[in-house]
Design brief:
The complex is a heterodimer of chains A (about 325) and B (about 350). Chain A is an all-alpha fold. Chain A is built from 14 helices and 2 strands, in the order αααααααββααααααα. In chain A, β1 and β2 form a beta hairpin. The longest helix of chain A has 26 residues. The radius of gyration of chain A is 21 Å and the shape is globular. The relative contact order of chain A is 0.18. In chain B, α3 runs antiparallel to α13. Chain B is globular and about 65 Å long. The chains are: A mainly alpha (about 325), B mainly alpha (about 350).
Chain lengths: ~325, ~350
């Protein structure tokens, strides 16, 4: 009797949109389990599962999470932003140089300005984003090197920047709240606004979106500006985290951000992807990094594992259709 | 023969990017030599071609995946891995070194083949696939040589990074380089000869083969190439493998040039980025299907010629990254001219 009922019930299958999110989340749990087993074996304590440790990981992940949120917008469009490293550094350096109450807004504005240049080059000049943002990254680097003399600037982060990066609100790191606000903004933007729908449309087929009356160029420029602003915010927070800005502070964020977005199931050519996936992707990468450092893996092995995980995850759910026509 | 003339015009238009790169390279290098205190001397040419070789190889390597409409973000890592491997094996007797060189070239090709397998059989987008494999190659390189060092045969290093005369003198052929028939080209730098040889003996035969034409066809329209019965999988695998092989050649030469190996992560990143810039300057379309590795070769030479000029004019080192960035941005923005010519807005979205 019960068997018959179960058979009659419609079999729920994961939609293609959900599959990557679920698999990535499963992988997060697997990493946690593996790491915990390791610490239980070597230290006799489940360090990984302690709330303090997890919160600390979330705080570290917040910077990557904010960058990845912005990166997801441009990847959904079918573009990419390779200017992230020096957008982060330029925002951080300018923010600490300005100081005072305007430090954070100025940091955001610098990021947005770089995003505006990127967006104009991609949307109006129609230069492939891959190479244009690369050039903008080089120019931003050049401007900052010329301005700071190639050294870490002497200016320090303002108290507000430090508070946002390392402060606590009700026991939770403030950076996590900032990440939360950015995430909320992303969910609303992608799911509830005309611009969000337009982003998916452009990613699927820009010509069709244009014919449907979407102001595609303006949407692309706005998305790049938001991506730049996200990098700028991350840079400002990072400067607060380390109390100062320095050369190359953004270098470690470009590839992990792209990896997080793609592992989260967003298609690298645009048009498909959910923000929840990006969140899970960020957590996966942060946890993977931290478990590898707990295991005291040498840098060499970490790189190999890092690359293998990306390929393995994509082999499971990120494969293209076969070309048959 | 008006037909011949029209044919020539079409050919010139098709290779406008290549011709621009050659012209730019010649102008910049002429300018450099005119202003160099020891300009137009063999010593300057040797030094410059040594500095340009690795980037030229990486740029040619990058061209193949780009022609497919993809990209290879692992070229810098392959170069580094082979460089590190070469610093372990490029010494000992002649046979050891021959085996070592073969091993290094094979390693580069194997890395490229693995990229190809992930892209073809794994059906993962090249940009993300090579991002991941690049991390793996870099990890292996770091494993092989955690800190810079190594030992490369001094004779070979000397012979490969000088002119043909020194090569002959080192290995005692052509009467130690004094033979009369050898004189006319004794002053040519070995790396320059090698560059030309790779372009003529590796790239040109490949580009003219069915596999090579298929690479172009895939870049133009993969679906159409498939329906035409072209060997898609084979062409993609061949393109990535050849790319890895060329990047490996660059790494092998870098080991000879520096007499050491270093798993330098920022340097690998810089090579990857500069290879893309060189490809674009050389007239290869990032959308695939148009361009050639010879163009990228000259694109790489243009990039190097720019930095040579910095050196001669003692540009403030702090301003160099800015100027380099501006040049790159200006070069890629030239592609925007197309936008002005488009009459139907829908043509923009291709």
């Amino acid at each position: 009797m019960t068997d018959a009922v179960q058979d009659a019930a419609p079999r729920r299958r994961l939609s293609p949109e959900d599959r990557p999110v679920v698999i990535a989340a499963g992988f997060v749990l697997a990493i946690l389990a593996l790491g915990t087993a390791y610490t239980l074996w070597t230290q006799g304590a489940a360090t990984l599962l302690s709330p303090t440790y997890l919160l600390q990981q979330l705080q570290v992940g917040a910077f990557l999470g904010i960058v990845a949120a912005g990166m997801m917008l441009v990847i959904l469009l079918g573009h990419i932003d390779l200017s992230v490293p020096w957008t982060i550094a330029a925002s951080a350096m300018t923010a600490t140089a300005v100081g005072g109450p305007f430090a954070v807004p100025v940091g955001l504005a610098v990021g947005m300005g770089i995003g505006l240049i990127n967006g104009c080059g991609v949307a109006y000049l129609r230069i492939p984003s891959m190479i244009f943002t690369l050039g903008v990254n080089a120019v931003a680097q050049g401007v900052m090197v010329a301005q700071t003399g190639g050294f870490a600037p002497q200016t320090a982060a303002t108290p507000l920047m430090q508070y946002l990066a390392v402060g606590k609100i009700a026991g939770l790191p403030a950076a996590v709240f900032v990440w939360g606000v950015v995430s909320l903004g992303m969910v609303v933007l992608l799911g509830r606004t005309a611009m969000g729908r337009a982003i998916y449309m452009i990613g699927a087929r820009e010509a069709a979106a244009y014919l449907a009356g979407v102001p595609t160029r303006r949407v692309i420029v706005a998305s790049f500006m938001l991506c730049g602003a996200a990098s700028g915010l991350a840079g400002t927070l990072l400067a607060g985290y380390s109390t100062k800005a320095y050369q190359g502070m953004g270098d470690a964020y470009l590839l992990p951000a792209i990896a997080a977005v793609v592992i989260g199931g967003t298609h690298i050519l645009g048009g498909r992807g959910r923000y929840l996936g990006t969140l899970v992707g960020v957590i996966l990468i942060v946890l993977l990094n931290s478990v590898l450092s707990i295991m005291q893996m040498p840098e060499a092995a970490r790189q190999v594992i890092y690359g293998s995980v990306i390929i393995a995850m994509l082999l499971v759910y990120g494969r293209n259709d076969k070309v048959t026509q | 023969m008006s037909g011949g003339f029209a044919d020539l015009r079409i050919r010139a238009r098709q290779s406008a990017g290549l011709l621009t790169a050659i012209g730019l390279c010649a102008a910049l290098y002429l300018f450099y030599n005119l202003n160099h205190p020891r300009g137009f001397s063999s010593a300057v040419l040797i030094q410059n071609s040594n500095e340009a070789f690795a980037l030229a190889m990486v740029a040619m390597a990058q061209t193949l995946p780009v022609l497919l409409g993809g990209i290879d973000l692992s070229v810098g890592a392959v170069l580094t891995l082979v460089n590190v491997a070469a610093s372990h094996v490029m010494n000992g007797g002649p046979l050891d070194m021959a085996l070592g060189a073969a091993l290094c070239m094979g390693l580069g090709a194997a890395c490229g083949f693995m990229n190809g397998c992930v892209v073809v059989y794994g059906r993962i987008q090249p940009i993300i696939a090579t991002l991941a494999t690049g991390a793996i190659y870099m990890g292996v390189a770091l494993f092989l040589r955690p800190s810079p060092g190594g030992n490369v045969d001094a004779d070979l290093s000397w012979a490969m990074t000088n002119d043909l005369f020194e090569m002959a003198a080192t290995y005692g052929f052509a009467a130690n380089g004094e033979a009369a028939w050898f004189r006319p080209f004794a002053a040519l730098p070995t790396p320059l000869i090698l560059m030309a040889a790779v372009a003529a003996l590796v790239w040109l035969p490949f580009a003219r083969s069915v596999t090579g034409r298929t690479v172009y066809a895939i870049g133009s329209n993969e679906g159409a190439a498939y329906m035409s019965g072209l060997p898609i999988a084979r062409a993609k695998l061949a393109a990535f493998t050849l790319g890895g092989f060329l990047a490996g050649l660059g790494g092998l030469f870098l080991a000879l040039q520096t007499s050491s190996g270093a798993a330098d992560v920022p340097q690998a990143g810089a090579y990857t980025l500069n290879s893309l810039a060189a490809v674009v300057i050389g007239g290869t379309s990032l959308l695939g299907g148009v361009g050639s590795a010879v163009g990228s070769l000259f694109g790489a030479l243009v990039l190097r010629a720019i930095s040579f000029n910095f050196r001669i004019f003692e540009v403030d080192p702090l301003l160099q990254p800015l100027i380099e960035g501006m040049v790159l941005l200006a070069a890629v923005s030239l592609g925007a001219v197309r936008v002005l010519r488009v009459r139907n807005t829908l043509d923009l979205f291709r």
